[in-house]
Design a protein that fits this description.
globular
Length: about 260
């Protein structure tokens, strides 16, 4: 890059910063009409004013709607892969086939390494739960809108940012671990699993806390108009992608590791 191009790029960058600063000063904060920051962040956690009506008169948290949508998307994608892609797999893989094989090999290798006994079913579960966590986390980046019971429009959150969804996934993983203990050691396996009585709680709140922290930080940045130009995009995408990868890996690792301990 020549010197003139560097100067031109620097001037453009400085100009953009000046425009954003002027806009921050002149633009009123749109969130002030909806209450103070404590109310905004409280609603991001509890969804007390963001309820959604489904199936007629049933009122639920928007996280449940997100869970239905993500599950439907994954079901359709898996069906399309099974019907249209897998029959066309070849000995020399293409890009999509290689990507799928690398993903399966990664999670299957993790499962076999941490749980060498009775791991065929576990490999399928770990793959499914890792994909679900990743897809459901990045789902909030698309900003699908729904109308609440109050008539306002909100973006659908990540399903696991709802404490109920995180608890369900944590308890399901704990039951899978217990099933491995029973299959490997009979009634004794229940005792081996119950020793880790805090495991479902730690799994649930690890998921919930990690995903919720990203949502709260983004909400906090959006709340202040001085920070609401460009920065929320960077913060939201960074937190979402990091949490999607890290939490999918952590839960898959913990599930396969504890399963291997009780099933040995």
């Amino acid at each position: 890059m020549s010197k003139k191009q560097k100067i031109r790029s620097g001037l453009i960058f400085v100009s953009l910063i000046i425009v954003f600063l002027i806009g921050s000063i002149l633009t009123a904060n749109p969130h002030k009409a909806h209450g103070d920051i404590q109310e905004v962040m409280r609603d991001a956690v509890l969804h007390e004013t963001g309820q959604v009506r489904i199936f007629g008169d049933f009122t639920v948290n928007p996280g449940l709607v997100s869970a239905f949508v993500v599950t439907g998307i994954l079901f359709v994608v898996c069906l399309c892969i099974r019907l249209f892609l897998i029959p066309k797999f070849t000995m020399v893989p293409g890009r999509i086939q290689m990507l799928l094989e690398q993903l399966v090999n990664l999670l299957d290798g993790m499962t076999r390494g941490n749980s060498p006994h009775r791991n065929k079913f576990l490999g399928g579960y770990v793959f499914a739960v890792a994909v679900y966590i990743f897809v459901s986390t990045i789902f909030e980046l698309f900003g699908f809108q729904v109308v609440t019971v109050n008539g306002t429009s909100i973006s659908l959150p990540a399903p696991l940012s709802d404490i109920n969804g995180a608890i369900c996934l944590g308890c399901l993983s704990y039951l899978i671990i217990m099933s491995g203990g029973i299959a490997g050691n009979g009634i004794k396996g229940i005792g081996l699993t119950l020793k880790e009585f805090s495991l479902p709680i730690s799994m649930s709140f690890r998921l919930f806390g990690a995903l919720l922290s990203g949502a709260l930080v983004t909400e906090l940045v959006y709340y202040y108009s001085a920070l609401s130009y460009g920065l929320p995009v960077l913060v939201g995408v960074m937190f979402t992608l990091l949490h999607a990868v890290i939490q999918a890996y952590v839960l898959a690792m913990l599930t396969s590791m504890y399963y291997g301990e009780v099933a040995e």
